[in-house]
Every structure is written in structure tokens, then in C-alpha cells.
């Protein structure tokens, strides 16, 4: 009988030790989960702080966007298209943007650092800006470039581009990319409009209102829909004036579209810090 009691006590003591081990493991797991939760909260807070800084600060000379590792997904948007011809002049804007986008896609497809995506199924497909933004966002791009052509009743000419506006997420990165585009177009022979080719557009009561790059006021009015709804840094480029014969000859005919596409490709490479291809295979 005594032996049986000793065995019983020994068994109970072993059970208690097992229980304490299970409790210790559970506590360790709980602590680990708490730390993991804290780490996620800290990461989330850093992301929110980063986005707030991106929205409110201008890129200085030392600024470089945080780009991560390649390959990078680039959304290429050919302005207008389908039933929407855009502006008409020496050339039709829809045709010029399609030719430039197609040339840019060739460069990006040839470069293993990039995965190009488009904002609709084809250049003959009609899609409004909201639909194109949704299509772009669904593919998780790292950068978006929307290609357009300008027009005027006068002999206006030159290049300008529009980044995401002050106060919006990705403003700083968008301005950084816009400056690279403008610098590249100037080096290729274009005249820069506004302040070094970078401007903002707002819609007030359905009318476009232009603001120069040094106007950093945070406004309630929205900019171009594609920029407003973009989930990544984005710029809308006005490649040239389709109403200017001289401008079209430089950047709007077949050779000009190839030249502009090369400039855009090099600007993308500069943004991500990759070495551009010297030629297409």
C-alpha cells in the first residue's frame, strides 16, 4: 500500500512538473506574440510617419527614395485612347501617347530590373482615369508615369510635368521623379515650362488651376484623378505641344516618341538607381 502511494505521489509530482513546463511554454509564447505585435505596431507607426513626411516635405539634394530591391513594377499610362483622341493638332495626342508608351515598354521589357504594366488592355480601349488608376493599383506598381501631350491656340512649346501635389502621400517621391524627367527632357533639347518643368494642377469648380512648383500650400482641391488615386509615386508628363510643328518634330513624331521614351526610361533608372541599357537587344 505504501509503495502504491509513493508511486501515486511520484506520478502526481511528474504531472505537476509537466503542467509547469506547459505553463512556461505558454508564457514564453505569449511574450513572443506580444513582442511580435509590438514590432508590427512600431513598423506601422514608422510607415505612417514616413508617409506623413513624404506628403509634407520637399526632396532636397540629399533625398533619395526608398526603393527596395528589384525587380520594380512600373505602370505606364498612355493618356486618352480608345474613343478619346485627346488634343488634336499636328498629330493626335492619343496616337503620340500610344507610340511613346509602346517604345517605353520595349525598354522596360528588355531590362530585367523592371516589370512593366499598363493601365488598360490596349490603346484602342476606352477607359476613364478612375478605371486606369484602379487597373494600375491592382498590379501594385512602384512607380507610375502617365504620358500626355499639351495643346494651345498659340505657338506654345516645351515640356512640363505634374507630380502628386503637396499634402498627399508620395508627394516627395513624385517630385523627385518629376525633376528627373524634366532634366532628361531638357538635356534632350526641350524647353522647360514653369519652374524647371515641374508644376501642379488643381481643379476648382471644374476648371484647371495651375500652380508653380514653389507653391507648397496644401489644398483641398484635387489634382488629376490618376495622380489623386495612385497608390505609388506618380507623375503626369506633358511631352510636347501637339499644336506646335517644331515641338512635334522634336518629340511628337515617330522618332520624337522614341527619343522621349528613352528619356523616360533613363529617368526611371535614375529613380531606382539602376544602370540603363545602352541599346535594345
TrEMBL record:
- Pfam families for the chain: Amidase_3
One of the entry's Gene Ontology molecular-function terms is:
N-acetylmuramoyl-L-alanine amidase activity
Q: Which domain of life is it from?
A: Bacteria
Q: What are the GO cellular component annotations?
A: outer membrane-bounded periplasmic space
Does this UniProt record's set of keywords contain Endoplasmic reticulum? no
Single GO biological process annotation from the record: peptidoglycan catabolic process
Q: Which UniProt keywords apply?
A: Hydrolase
Q: Which residues form the MurNAc-LAA domain?
A: 133-269
Gene3D superfamilies, per database record:
Zn-dependent exopeptidases
| InterPro entries given in the database record | MurNAc-LAA_cat, N-acetylmuramoyl_amidase_3
Q: What is this protein called?
A: N-acetylmuramoyl-L-alanine amidase
Q: Which organism is it from?
A: Candidatus Faecalibacterium gallistercoris
Q: Please name the taxonomic classification of the source.
A: Bacteria, Bacillati, Bacillota, Clostridia, Eubacteriales
Amino acid at each position: 500500500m505504501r509503495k502504491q502511494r509513493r508511486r501515486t505521489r511520484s506520478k502526481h509530482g511528474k504531472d505537476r512538473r509537466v503542467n509547469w513546463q506547459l505553463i512556461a511554454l505558454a508564457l514564453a509564447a505569449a511574450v513572443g506574440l506580444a513582442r511580435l505585435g509590438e514590432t508590427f505596431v512600431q513598423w506601422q507607426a514608422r510607415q505612417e510617419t514616413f508617409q506623413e513626411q513624404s506628403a509634407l516635405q520637399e526632396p532636397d539634394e540629399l533625398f533619395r527614395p526608398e526603393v527596395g530591391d528589384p525587380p520594380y513594377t512600373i505602370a505606364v499610362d498612355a493618356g486618352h485612347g480608345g474613343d478619346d483622341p485627346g488634343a488634336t493638332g499636328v498629330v493626335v495626342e492619343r496616337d503620340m501617347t500610344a507610340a511613346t508608351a509602346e517604345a517605353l515598354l520595349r525598354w522596360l521589357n528588355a531590362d530585367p530590373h523592371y516589370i512593366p504594366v499598363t493601365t488598360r488592355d490596349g490603346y484602342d480601349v476606352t477607359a476613364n482615369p478612375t478605371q486606369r488608376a484602379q487597373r494600375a493599383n491592382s498590379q501594385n506598381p512602384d512607380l507610375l508615369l502617365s504620358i500626355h501631350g499639351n495643346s494651345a491656340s498659340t505657338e506654345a512649346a516645351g515640356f512640363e510635368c505634374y507630380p502628386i501635389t503637396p499634402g498627399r502621400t508620395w508627394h516627395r517621391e513624385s517630385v523627385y521623379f518629376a525633376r528627373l524627367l524634366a532634366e532628361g527632357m531638357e538635356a534632350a533639347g526641350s524647353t522647360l515650362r514653369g519652374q524647371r518643368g515641374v508644376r501642379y494642377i488643381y481643379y476648382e469648380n471644374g476648371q484647371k488651376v495651375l500652380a508653380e512648383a514653389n507653391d507648397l500650400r496644401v489644398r483641398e482641391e484635387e489634382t488629376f484623378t490618376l495622380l489623386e488615386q495612385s497608390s505609388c509615386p506618380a507623375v503626369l508628363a506633358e511631352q510636347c505641344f501637339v499644336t506646335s510643328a517644331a515641338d512635334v518634330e522634336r518629340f511628337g513624331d515617330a522618332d520624337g516618341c522614341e527619343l522621349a521614351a528613352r528619356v523616360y526610361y533613363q529617368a526611371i533608372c535614375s529613380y531606382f538607381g539602376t544602370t540603363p541599357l545602352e541599346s535594345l537587344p
